């Protein structure tokens, strides 16, 4: 087990801790209850035995592979602070593309549905940016919804939360825009046993099938809950864009297209409801 002795100075932690500089700083600030500036202004401060023990425990968790976001219980997304725990996926920068696309397509006082909201990152980011909009977010997990409600309240975002297995609990409700970041990793994919994914809720990562079953459900059900000319936007895997576009085209949608994230990967696909649906 990795340890650090009491008596170490705050200013020496970056060289003493065994992680990458950013992770060293995050864990040191969290363990000591100070800011990044505090690491500088308190550089001569000496760690007490309880502080050293707390910091060593956090470092050991990270060395075992646990995500930093779960260790500190926070993650920044779209400029907002989100609480996270193992009941929800860790919000990722790639998903900010979905928020941007949603904001571009959400009409004034429009209604948006976020499916499989998890931590509430997408719904809260949109509601915070567009307080005129009516944002509804659903998830099948009660534990996830508890986290999402906490994040909405903390960020002063008006979001209505519904516990639902996809469209099951929203009856005949209609929305101008539906967005989703559903489970899209295929069952047995090697990535599920690597990195941060080992610690995240498996049901939010994989559909336990071919990676497309949740996307098929959303594509099939969305027309019954979209207003005229409404948009459906879905995040998906790095190699699924063509398949998702095909699902949308087969479903009678129009203006079918995909958008690339900052890494140049087709990360989001979507379309408008077809006139005949």
From TrEMBL:
Keyword 4Fe-4S on entry: no
Residue ranges the record marks as coiled coil: none
Biological function: Methylates the class 1 translation termination release factors RF1/PrfA and RF2/PrfB on the glutamine residue of the universally conserved GGQ motif.
GO biological process: methylation
Gene Ontology molecular function: peptide chain release factor N(5)-glutamine methyltransferase activity
UniProt binding sites for S-adenosyl-L-methionine: 116-120, 139, 166, 181
Pfam family of the protein (one): PrmC_N
PROSITE patterns: N6_MTASE (PS00092)
Keyword presence, Methyltransferase: yes
Protein name, as recorded: Release factor glutamine methyltransferase
Organism of derivation: Massilia rubra
Domain Methyltransferase small, residue spans: 95-191
Positions with a binding annotation for substrate: 181-184
Record-annotated Release factor glutamine methyltransferase N-terminal domain positions: 18-73
Keywords of the record: Methyltransferase, S-adenosyl-L-methionine, Transferase
Family: Belongs to the protein N5-glutamine methyltransferase family. PrmC subfamily.
Enzyme Commission (EC) number: 2.1.1.297
Annotated HAMAP family: RF_methyltr_PrmC
Domain of life: Bacteria
Alphabetized InterPro entries for the sequence: DNA_methylase_N6_adenine_CS (IPR002052), HemK-like (IPR004556), N5-glutamine_MTase (IPR050320), PrmC_N (IPR040758), RF_methyltr_PrmC (IPR019874), SAM-dependent_MTases_sf (IPR029063), Small_mtfrase_dom (IPR007848)
Reaction equation(s) it catalyzes: L-glutaminyl-[peptide chain release factor] + S-adenosyl-L-methionine = N(5)-methyl-L-glutaminyl-[peptide chain release factor] + S-adenosyl-L-homocysteine + H(+)
């Amino acid at each position: 087990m990795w340890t650090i002795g009491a008596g170490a100075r705050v200013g020496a932690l970056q060289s003493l801790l065994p992680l990458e500089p950013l992770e060293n700083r995050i864990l040191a600030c969290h363990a000591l209850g100070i800011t990044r500036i505090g690491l500088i202004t308190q550089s001569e401060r000496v760690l007490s035995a309880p502080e050293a023990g707390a910091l060593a425990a956090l470092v050991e968790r990270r060395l075992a592979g646990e995500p930093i976001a779960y260790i500190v219980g926070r993650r920044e997304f779209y400029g907002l602070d989100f609480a996270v725990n193992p009941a929800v996926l860790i919000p990722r920068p790639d998903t900010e593309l979905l928020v941007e696309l949603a904001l571009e397509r959400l009409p004034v006082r429009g209604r948006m549905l976020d499916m499989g909201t998890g931590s509430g990152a997408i719904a809260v980011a949109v509601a915070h940016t567009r307080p005129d909009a009516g944002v509804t977010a659903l998830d099948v997990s009660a534990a996830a919804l508890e986290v999402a409600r906490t994040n909405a309240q903390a960020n002063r975002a008006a979001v209505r939360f519904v516990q639902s297995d996809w469209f099951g609990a929203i009856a005949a409700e209609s929305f101008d825009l539906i967005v989703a970041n559903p489970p899209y990793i295929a069952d047995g994919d090697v990535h599920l046993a690597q990195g941060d994914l080992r610690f995240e809720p498996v049901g939010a990562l994989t559909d336990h099938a071919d990676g497309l079953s949740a996307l098929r459900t959303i594509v099939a059900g969305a027309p019954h809950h979209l207003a005229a000319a409404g948009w459906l936007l879905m995040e998906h895997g790095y190699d699924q864009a063509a398949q998702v576009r095909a699902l949308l085209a087969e479903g009678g949608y129009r203006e079918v297209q995909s958008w690339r994230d900052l890494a140049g990967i087709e990360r989001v696909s979507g379309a408008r409801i077809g006139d005949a649906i």
